[in-house]
Amino acid sequence: MFTPDTGDTGPVFAPHVLREYALLADGERGALIGPHGDIAWMCAPRWDSDAVFSALVGGGGSYAVTPLDPRHVWGGFYETGSLIWHSRFITGEGPVECREALAFPGESDRVVLLRRILATDCPARVRIVLEPRGAFGGDSSHDVRQHHDLWSGKTGPLNWRWSGAAEARATRTPDGGGEVLTFELTVPPGRHHDLVLELSPNALSDEPVQSDAAWAATEASWARNCPTPPETIATRDAHHALAVLRGLTSRSGGMVAAATMCLPERAGAGRNYDYRYAWIRDQCYAGIAAAGVGATGLVDSAVGFVSARLLQDGPELKPAYTVSGRAVPSEQTLDLPGYPGGTDKIGNWVNQQFQLDTYGEALQLLATAGHSGRLDPDGRRAVHVAVTAVEQLWNRPDAGIWEIDDRHWTHSKLSCVAGLRAVAALPGAGREVGRLTSLADTILADTARTSLHPDGHWKRAADMPGVDASLLMPPVRGALPGDDPRTVATLRAVRRELARDEYVYRFRHDDGPLAEAEGAFLLCGFLMALAEHQQGNTARALRFFERNRAACGPPGLFAEEYDIIQRQLRGNLPQAFVHALLLECAARLSEDPPPPAQRERG
Length: 602
Prior knowledge:
The strands form eight sheets. Strands 8-9-10-11-18-15-14-13 form an eight-stranded antiparallel β-sheet, covered by helices on one side. A four-stranded antiparallel β-sheet has the order 3-4-5-6, with no helix packed on it. The relative contact order is 0.10. The protein is 31% helix and 21% strand. The chain is an alpha+beta fold.
């Protein structure tokens, strides 16, 4: 059988390439499952809490259901329109399945992790290991005790309870500091066996979770919250993207940028960040994409969260918050080895940045909601706050979409132009139309004066002549017409300078090959598809769409970057804004493109 390595603090499952991890998520936290049935990552009780299973980044804690037959291969699938995952192993004895989910929708202060071992036409023989370790592995499990088929214990501030493991036995970890539960199980053909793990910082209720009821409620909730999106291409992938976005979105409305932290974008380059927070920009992308497929629940979540932050902070709006609306903590380094090629940090330096484009993205989201009849009074007040902030701040340098240094980034200014034009087109804009269009025209004229290349395309910034793939977005959102010569020239420049094999890079770091500096950005690949579609280049749009939607592993999850040479995912997983742009593409590319007045020639 497969046996994990044994470290000083218990079983250790080595990390795998990112394409082999599946996601469980319930809105309040997420878990990654590896190809040996191992939960390699889960923070509890919330997204930004310390991890209780953190082998992914070199920490401790284990929870695995693994076939006893050492000769097994891994696969799996999601139940349609949900994040209910089936780990499926083919062994020499036949198939073994484990149905897995976080009870959905999640509670903010209690984790309920469901695992159902399924035997089809042959016995399912598995080995099961459980060792919760809080504080990224620093806190062992203690006070571990059994009462009938229930086990309970504590790790750090968390209480835990495990049902369905009557045969488990506790053993001390090699360092003597904690206890690990293990047992072997055989499920007869045609039967199943349930395991339920609960964790909470509060005292757990006297009644443990009943597995059948929890499974039924989870299935019903996914069916209600994630209906099949209408009129899209790649409907199955679009539906899955919608499920990922829903799984990453809290009851508070906040959506984390990714379920993980510090997965490196490039080995040894220091580009590894904590993405367990809600970025305003990403939330706007998700809300706009959701509106395009009629997913009103996600639209309302995005509008509510973004509106609340605008009303709370106004011209001091931060680029990101915790999902509960609090400030993102400053970066701190953890004493862990990290995922191979990376280092571990919690918190994010984005809390010190000003990003002008977030106001433009927010206005675009709120306008989209207004056109859908889903803009409430708080949303309308948030529009006024955002417009006033743009008036005050548009000529101030900012960190931009790529969160680099403060400059007059062209994308930031054009995003504000797009947002102002979008709200000016809302029914009932009335006397505000003149103010909005005048401000948009002023920003556009000034940006054209400072940031237009002699070749006719938009420059990255006033003092940076290169092109940037993010500049494809503002025309798609209405900052300029699709047939504006600057729009056409920018698309041509991005295609010529930044596209390779239908993948797209953000910008040029140097004169060397693009792939030597960083991976292709999947967000930019889907942006390219939208921009080509806007030009009426249907075949090109579909090529970019199909190429980029294939840049994932069997679970269909996308990271931020894709290494096109090694065909590997890079960066945190799953990256919400990539799934959002896939969903938007699937909807928009199903429509006829607007007939451009100016076609590209040559």
